[in-house]
Design a protein that fits this description.
Blueprint (H helix, E strand, L loop, with lengths): L13 H11 L6 H26 L4 E5 L1 H4 L9 E7 L5 H17 L4 E6 L1 H10 L1 H7 L3 E5 L1 H37 L17 H13 L9 H19 L8 H10 L5 H34 L2 H6 L8 E4 L2 E4 L2 E4 L11 H12 L5 H13 L8 H11 L5 H10 L2 H5 L20 H13 L8 H10 L10 H15 L4 H12 L3 H8 L5 H11 L2 H18 L6 H18 L14 H13 L10 E10 L7 E9 L8 H13 L4 H15 L10 E5 L7 E8 L4 H11 L3 E10 L2 E9 L8 H15 L1
Parallel strand pairs: 2-3
Antiparallel strand pairs: 1-2, 1-4, 5-6, 6-7, 8-9, 8-12, 10-11, 11-13, 12-13
Helix pairs in contact: 1-2, 2-4, 5-6, 5-7, 6-7, 7-8, 7-11, 8-11, 9-10, 9-11, 10-11, 13-15, 13-16, 18-19, 18-24, 19-21, 19-24, 20-21, 22-25, 23-25, 24-25, 29-30
Catalytic activity: [protein-PII]-L-tyrosine + UTP = [protein-PII]-uridylyl-L-tyrosine + diphosphate; [protein-PII]-uridylyl-L-tyrosine + H2O = [protein-PII]-L-tyrosine + UMP + H(+)
Pfam families: ACT, GlnD_UR_UTase, HD
Keywords: Hydrolase, Magnesium, Multifunctional enzyme, Nucleotidyltransferase, Repeat, Transferase
Length: 771
């Protein structure tokens, strides 16, 4: 602890107490509290400078706030960005003494401090050399001392910024893009950095700098509100954690929501995403305008006219839509008030051409739509333009986001409002619900060549998770919504039924392929009954792949794709009246026979290892050459991380497990304790559920387990099934992120399915073992 000298307030004096009272008081909050904290800090630092200047005899000095503090915004744990200006007349020793009397009281209070001591000329020189310093000087605000020094600094800072803008703005843009690539997009992250992620507070500050250059300005609609909400969230985060953090971690979101008076963390995240989306959209529009202005300045007028698509000429894209200066804009003759399909035609044309849709074009169409909305049901052209937009591939995304930012999507599809910016807390998901739907359409666009109705595939992709905005099973809720939306779009009853079926069963193929026995005729028959026709099956297969690819890397793999394709082939054969022989009943392969003979000869198990996360398991009893039965277990696994373990060691441990010399529960407990010491704190996992799948099979009873994935989970389930004295015919293991969904085909000791009462009892025993 440093000893504070001077006549200013002591560290434990009035400022510290007043600051604490202000932060503990529920009112004021938000911008009012930030401003009050800044004023309180201004007064304290001003008194410090007055006293210190009198003691040290330093003339011609000024204390200046820069950065966030310069903007008059202080969060509870914000650092103080301070610049001590002087006119160069004071001796170095006196300046150092003056600085000490300013900085040490700040440090003694435990506040973070970013400080510098410079003349205005030195500050100007450093700003010209360092972009971040120059940006901070744009927010310079006088606190105390000689105001002439501060005024001179501000004047030169703005003059230098505007003079250097043609070279500095591209540098700033590169910094923003590099940061976005490193931190991700705030509007999609489960644990976003409110400051550094794309669409966060840094981007909002960058937009202020662009405006200060006088070259371009950001669209103002909602921008300041979005920025204030992010600041409010950061304030609450500082109060909850007691730390200067910008990362909104999962374990703190409910508390932050409570401080802000919100219902829960989902409401908090949705508002955060909406704010980030507003800032991101403004950022995109602004940097496009900067590029346009700089491009115009870089070419002589005559040359600009010769550059294709970049000069005064307008290239037609569609009826009422042209390309101008790198954007899709409305033609001069366009009349959106007389052409309600124009907004969709413009969006489709922009996406197809790989161009952004100009903001003023969207806003003009939006104003026209308010007075002259698109008729319901939609005319055929409107539906066709929507399909064209969805089928444009990756170029669909920025155009759709522009429409969303201007409120067009919810005007066209009112049900979209419930999924807009809705978070998905399953870590398998990369996107919010609405972005996932658009991403699924993008993925589906690459699969349209293999289906007979690409339009229905694309519309189903856009709607498949539309029920996530409603309570209950989102597939069930989505079926009803999708049917209504299909009617709104002008589809006939038959097509609307296909769309509704696809939405209702969009998870059917994946869940069945990974959790059910495909060799059981009941499995194929159940899927065939749900799908109904080969045409719907074809669409469902493509939708399944698009949905999984749009979910995230953990949701799709060659293994999963193979299972789904196998199931689709079997169902197609069933619907066509053809039969396919089951794989498992065709008899043992030569390799299986060899393994059984080796096992019989050695008296021990043989492990054929290929990969180690368990994907599937099945059992078979073999009797090679009549020498006696051998139980063959096949496991499909993948390494959790690193290289695969040695087969000899695995084989040895398996022998010890079977003869009882290996204490598996103890080993698992030891391993779990080791992992727990290094595991990051996480939200409590939901309790496991164990159910009996009714009608899942005619040859066995299907016990389904849903639980948090954990080391030894299959061991605990297996021990419970063993204790229940049932035989496991096959196991189908599926792990998505932190969640395991495992299905076990079990029979009694005679090989028959369990009675309903016995099955329920077994499910309860497994549930108890997992709890």
């Amino acid at each position: 602890m440093h000893t504070t000298q001077g006549t200013g307030p002591a560290p434990d004096g009035g400022y510290a107490a007043a600051r604490l009272r202000l932060l503990q008081d529920a009112a004021p909050a938000g911008p009012a509290r930030r401003a009050a904290l800044a004023r309180l800090t201004d007064d304290w630092l001003g008194a410090l400078l007055t006293g210190a200047a009198a003691e040290t005899g330093v003339p011609g000095a000024a204390l200046v706030a820069v950065g966030g503090y310069g903007r008059g915004e202080l969060s509870p744990r914000s650092d103080l960005d301070l610049l001590l200006l002087h006119d160069g007349r004071a001796a170095a020793g006196a300046l150092a003494a003056l600085a000490d009397r300013l900085w040490y009281p700040v440090w003694d209070l435990g506040l973070d401090l970013d400080h510098a001591v410079r003349t205005p000329a030195e500050a100007r020189k450093v700003g010209r050399a360092d972009l971040k310093v120059q940006l901070g000087l744009l927010d310079a605000r006088h606190l105390a001392g000689d105001p002439v020094l501060t005024a001179a600094l501000r004047t030169t800072a703005y003059a230098d910024w505007r003079e250097s803008a043609p070279t500095r703005l591209p540098e700033l843009h590169d910094l923003c893009r590099e940061r976005a690539g490193r931190q991700g997009e705030l509007q999609y992250l489960l644990e976003p950095d409110l400051k550094e992620a794309r669409g966060g507070l840094r981007d909002a500050t960058a937009l202020r700098a662009v405006a200060a250059s006088w070259l371009a300005d950001a669209p103002r609609g909602g921008l300041e509100t979005a920025r204030a909400r992010l600041l409010d969230t950061r304030d609450a985060l500082h109060l909850v954690t007691g730390r200067a953090t910008d990362r909104l971690a999962l374990q703190e979101q409910d508390q932050v929501a409570h401080v802000l008076g919100m219902l829960d963390a989902d409401v908090l995240l949705r508002q955060t995403y909406e704010s980030a989306r507003t800032i991101s959209y403004a950022t995109d529009v602004t940097w496009r305008e900067v590029a346009r202005v700089l491009r115009a300045r870089s070419c002589r007028p005559v040359l600009r006219g010769l550059l294709p698509g970049r000069g005064a000429g307008r290239l037609p894209l569609a009826g009422g839509v042209v390309e101008h200066d790198g954007e899709a804009v409305l033609a001069r003759s366009a009349r959106p008030e007389r052409d309600p399909v124009l907004v969709l035609r413009a969006a489709a044309a922009a996406a197809r051409a790989g161009l952004p849709l100009a903001m003023h074009a969207i806003r003009r169409c939006g104003l026209a739509m308010a007075a002259h909305p698109l008729p319901v049901p939609w005319p055929a052209e409107a539906r066709e333009q929507l399909v064209t937009l969805l089928g444009a591939g990756p170029h669909t995304v920025p155009v759709w986001e522009s429409l969303e930012a201007e409120g067009i999507v919810t005007r066209l599809l009112p049900d979209w409002e419930r999924v807009r910016c809705r978070p998905q807390r399953n870590p398998v998901h990369t996107w919010t619900v609405d972005r996932h739907l658009v991403e699924t359409a993008v993925r589906a666009a690459a699969l349209t060549r293999r289906v007979h109705r690409p339009d229905l595939l694309l519309i189903a992709a856009l709607l498949h998770d539309i029920g996530k905005g409603w309570p209950g099973d989102h597939a069930v809720a989505g079926e009803t919504i999708a049917r209504d939306v299909a009617a709104r779009l002008g589809l006939d009853a038959r097509d609307a039924t296909v769309i509704a079926t696809l939405v209702r069963h969009h998870l059917l193929l994946t869940e069945t392929a990974t959790r059910r026995d495909l060799d059981d005729p009941a499995t194929v028959a159940a899927v065939a009954e749900a799908v109904g026709t080969t045409g719907t099956l074809e669409l469902l297969h493509a939708l399944t792949e698009a949905d999984a690819l749009a979910t995230g890397p953990a949701a799709w793999s060659t293994w999963r794709a193979g299972l789904v394709a196998d199931l689709a082939d079997r169902v197609a054969a069933h619907l066509a009246g053809r039969s396919r022989p089951a794989r498992a009943v065709a008899g043992p392969t030569p390799e299986q026979e060899r393994l059984a003979v080796v096992a019989r000869r050695t008296g021990g198990p043989v492990l054929a290892l290929h990969r180690l996360t368990v994907h599937a398991a099945d059992l078979r009893t073999l009797d090679p050459a009549g020498a006696g039965p051998v139980l063959l277990l096949r496991w499909r696994v993948a390494a959790e991380y690193g290289a695969l373990p040695q087969a000899d060691r695995l084989r040895a441990d398996l022998v010890r497990a079977l003869d009882g010399s290996l204490d598996i529960p103890a080993r698992l407990a030891e391993r779990e304790r080791a992992y727990a010491r290094h595991r990051r704190a996480a939200l409590p996992a939901p309790p496991p559920t164990v159910t009996v799948a009714r009608g899942g099979s005619r040859a066995a009873t299907v016990i389904e387990v849903r639980a948090q994935d954990a080391h030894g989970l299959l061991h605990r389930i297996g021990r419970a099934l063993e204790a229940a004295r049932v035989a496991v015919r096959s196991a189908h293991i599926s792990t998505l992120g932190a969640n395991a969904v495992d299905a076990f085909y079990v029979t009694d000791t005679a090989g028959a399915p369990l009675t309903a009462e016995r099955a329920a009892a077994v499910a309860r025993e497994v549930q108890g073992a997992l709890e």
